[in-house]
Design a protein that fits this description.
two-stranded antiparallel ribbon; 10 strands; alpha/beta; about 15% strand; homopentamer
Chain lengths: ~300, ~300, ~300, ~300, ~300
């Protein structure tokens, strides 16, 4: 595996990590279509757990089969495939070595819906190691009354992951009674959520694309008085990247359910232009038939790679 | 112990498990009347704990004796016998090696009835090993406010069980304030519950036979818009099997208290036709006299084996 | 220590236990006046903790001294003496080897009275070992909202006790908001409580003598439709014994505060006639002067031994 | 270190303890002015933590310095000095070997005042060992809704302390919503609190001097019907000593803030006459200038030793 | 590294600590501009976590880069740099050995605001060791209903830190429903908070500069009756130093957001004159451009060193 200069540069930001963790981070950054560019597109498939199987896979029933997502990630040239324990166990031997795997260590369902959510621990660092994963994934909910417990648990798992040479990927999703619905994706809250994940020791941070909404009054005052540019999506991406150790941590973005592919492509362009490191794309890819999914993901990777406008 | 091609095929779905766990899974799939067919009938006797001894055993007082159930499981040709610690301790030496045993690791009583139930931990992986069990059993209650704690604990026990070469059998029973009474057996909820159990790393999943009810509005919308066929019981079984990694995890079914044996047989036919892997039959078998129980279980196994219509 | 056939028979029911545990169980069954008969009378003195010292010992102030109870148990020929940590520590060296000891591992006081009680952990398996005990004692409160936590903790302690060759004695006392006051000693609830203790792995189960009250509607229906005989005290004892693995676990009984010695003797006759394994007698023995206590306990043992009508 | 017969007698009550623990108990009983008499006066200085530094030390500012209390304990001939971690760490090297030390393992402040108090764990058995202490101190609040958790934690710490040859000193202070304000020092409650501490394995029990108040109705009935003498302070001390294993555990007493030295001396006389083992005297000693404190403590010790009336 | 007499004197106060911990404390006291004087200025940068990135760094966007703060601490001659895990991980290799580091082990955000705050555990002693830190930092909130849990956890971490030769720095910040807003910085509460931190085993205590407000009635009475001088800021600093083991523990102070640099300098003069050991200065330094920050910090250090009036 040859390492590009850009990958080498990114690895240089993680001076406190072991060669083992850097090796696994290099594997993610060197895999797939975008390998070596410093950009990543990750395929996450935890929607079966999060929303139920029919809501996730009825639109493209091939997705009921856990092998489908391994294949999709491999054939589309994704940088990594992230899923809960069961889905990874069901394909890790068959597809061993073909795509970097991230074991999602916590999950949540919607069979009961809490105002202040928390997640169940559904996997371990040892599970990640026995399944050949490059890293672990973990969700935090800044804004939930349970957030501090989630941070505390993440730290424990991250310490164990790092001691075992794994990469730590954190999904930082503001939710809960500390925030308005609009505030969950507000730019101040999103930048704050990304910063917290980085402070907790994440190597890779994943947030939702932020809106221009400013949720917290003391923050709003600062954004306005200092003229922090957050008017365009690219500017907001740039601000999130800045808030994540001034670009010295990998930050990737997910969108929500969007109306059209063109909108997604525009979002990807904004991520690219704002200095974001890539996308994590779940439902939008595995809920369409495989040929369309490959084309869709190919276009996105092309935008990042510069081979597609 | 000769392994049939069908058993070999089923074992092939568990590529992340150790030879030790596959050995024990093969033992369950090769035991009893249905050994080698890929179908299973399991005898569970935890009703004494769950509902009290008289409600469980007064109809057939032979069942007060823990040895009775070992004998019933052996003589009827069941694939395995599952029970709490005390019942297994009371016969494991006498019947050692005669029937695969599953130690139920958690249990609940009805001396206090909670809106949002959870279970006590009543056995350990070490207990299962010292009693010669092939696997552990564990109940989760998706829909309960305690569900995330139950998932977290299951994961810990499952990791330990797998590290010790045991099979993990999960009873996934939706209950609690997140669901209506009707919703507990709704097809969307049942399929979701089976999927969660599989994602948590279960090798064998046990759910109740689902009704055509659709509980959750966003799910209902998907079932209807995508025309997921759930009109007949066989279709619903098929959908649950599909939702459990597209048939690559063993799913078995229990009925509730039913009106007549014929109804049970019809349910078994639906499970068979829908691609289900078998039944778990407790009260309906041990609450009748042994000769009738043997005949009843024999008929069910015959339906699965194809020797009975 | 010669083992009688009856003791040998009782030991045969515990096929999953180690020779170490059987040795200690044999010690209890072979000690004192009733040694070898398969019946037991145990002296428990935890009332100082449970109700306070004056309420316990003012009627017979010799009982303030922890040595008194060792002497009483030894001189009266009890099968074992059970007490909390402090009381055992205060005499275990002086009376080493003279009477089987049971360390009560949890206790409760009445300086705050909860609707749903739980107990403090007040001793450990290691304490029991260093004090030379044959077993541990543990109380559960089926019916309390805390019962599942109590079961979970009992299981942990029982596993450790068994791994160290100790006997597990469970006080199963229904209490809490799941039950009416009358229900706490109802026959359905008592039989259920004894069954739960056995399922949790108890070697010896202790319950209160049940009344004819039927607490839970679904149980009442079964008792009535199946004509389970619970009219006389002996019948109710027989039903509890049946509910505890059909007599294959040792079940002993306590009465409440009773009006006269004759009433106690009648209760003992009912336990004997119903197939119960003996009595646990605290306040009724140590709250009278020693000569009277010896006579009283002697009469009870005589009823069990058949030397007293 | 020569051991007197009286000390030897006291040690004989602790037959279940290791030579290591007896050695440390002998050190306390042999230290200072009262060494060898079987009586003790302990200096406790946790008021800085419990009430704040100014309320504790402004009356005698020399007490802000942690060394002051070591010196006071040594020069006054106290049997031991008890304090939280920080205060002991600040002098343990300088005064090593000059006075027996007791590390208080839990503490409470009044910056928030709960109806049902509990304490923070503020030291460990390992801390006690590295600081050269003879024992650990621990407070329980019988009457608080948290009491059972406090007992459970005490038991764990006591087991560890005993395994390491340390003495266990328990402050048993009834408080919380189970008791009226007057009830906290009622004789029934105080005797009960002392009994609980002894049952939990304490070697030395510390309670407040009890009033004649009887808090709990069932206890009141027993005290009255059996004519338990609790009319004078000496009688009440005698009853507490009786309730603590009939005098076979060391019980010491603290007073509250009192009006005059003569009152304190009278209390000490009552403790002496009632068979109490001594006093624990904090604020009343360190809040006056050292010469007065030495004189005050000297008088108290003289009363216990019989050299002062 | 030569040790001055003053540093040697300070080290002598920590007689219960290991040479390892003294070595690290000596490193802090010997580093930077104030090295050897016994005074310290520490740069803390946890505001990104505590208030969000924009509120922290928009005023001086260089601060988004974690390397900036290492450089600022080094170039300004600070005694140490304290930050959460992520910020330290991002520079510890590059700046290894150039400035003593303190890993902040707990943190809090404002995405949900509790009446009674607690913090998440965000780092470990092992993290501090692998990053080459001289010590750990930990915040407690005396006055919060969660304070006792925070003390308990601090004690565990402090014991582990000391066993590994690290220094323990405690941020003692009164907050929560036990206190009025004004009371959080009242002199009685501040002195109490500093005393608690020292009792919990802190080597270095950090509090806010206290106001003359007296929060608690019993304390107010004592301050007034004993005429404790708290009228001027220097007097209040002196009282806090006195309350922290009479000056035998290092106490440093932070101000709040202040109106002018001159006010800060006046506060520093008061700390100096009152016998305080230094300042911890975060926002006031890193929120201005580096040249101004260096000048500002230089002036403060000059006041402490006596080279600036």
């Amino acid at each position: 595996m040859a390492i590009t200069d850009r990958v080498r540069e990114i690895l240089s930001w993680y001076g406190s990590d072991s060669p083992g963790t850097l090796t696994n981070l290099a594997r993610m950054l060197s895999a797939g279509t975008l390998g070596g560019t410093g950009r990543m597109v990750i395929l996450p498939v935890d929607q079966g757990f999060e929303h139920g199987p029919a809501r996730s896979f009825a639109p493209n029933p091939a997705g009921y089969d856990p092998r489908y997502h391994f294949q999709l990630a491999i054939e589309s040239g994704c940088s990594a495939y992230a899923a809960p324990l069961g889905f990874l166990e069901a394909g890790a031997r068959e597809f061993a070595g073909q795509v970097p795997l991230i074991l999602k260590l916590n999950n949540h369902d919607v069979l009961y819906e809490e105002k202040d959510p928390i997640q169940a621990i559904t996997g371990s660092v040892r599970d990640a190691l026995r399944l050949g994963c490059v890293g672990i994934g973990y969700t935090i909910y800044p804004g939930s009354t349970h957030r501090l417990d989630m941070y505390t648990k993440l730290r424990e798992l991250a310490e164990e992951a790092k001691a075992n040479g794994l990469v730590v990927v954190v999904w930082s999703y503001p939710r809960g009674s500390g925030l308005s619905k609009e505030g969950e994706t507000g730019i101040d809250v999103t930048a704050y959520a990304a910063h917290i994940a980085a402070q907790l020791g994440a190597h890779v941070v994943k947030v939702k694309l932020p809106s221009a909404h400013l949720e917290q009054a003391p923050a709003k005052k600062v954004y306005e008085s200092h003229g922090v540019p957050v008017g365009t999506l690219a500017e907001r991406v740039r601000h999130v990247v800045q808030s994540t150790f001034n670009g010295r941590r990998v930050v990737i973005f997910s969108g929500g359910p969007t109306a059209s592919d063109e909108q997604v492509y525009d979002e990807v362009r904004a991520i690219r232009d704002g200095g974001g490191f890539g996308s994590i794309i779940g439902r939008n890819s595995f809920q369409r038939k495989q040929p369309e999914a490959l084309k869709f993901l190919g276009t996105i990777m092309g935008i990042y790679a510069g081979t597609h406008k």
